[in-house]
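One such given next:
>
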Amino acid sequence: LSAFANWTITAWINPHSAAQQFPVIYAEGHWGVSLGLQQNTGRLDSWLNNANQIASTAAVQFSRWRCVALV
């Protein structure tokens, strides 16, 4: 994905817990591009090129289907 100027990652998720270390929704390479949940907080968390972190301000509700996107 990082080879393209514009891209979007979308996923339907139904997390039951964020207890495992960085539950991954999508990952390319080793932190090249990733989207997952922060451990224990349930907030969406993304890393780009192993250097730029983006995190949501609110947690994803557990045991409910949600559509999430990284644009």
Observations:
- The CA atoms of residues 37 and 44 lie 5 Å apart.
- Strands lie at 9-13, 24-28, 33-37, 43-48, 52-59, 66-70.
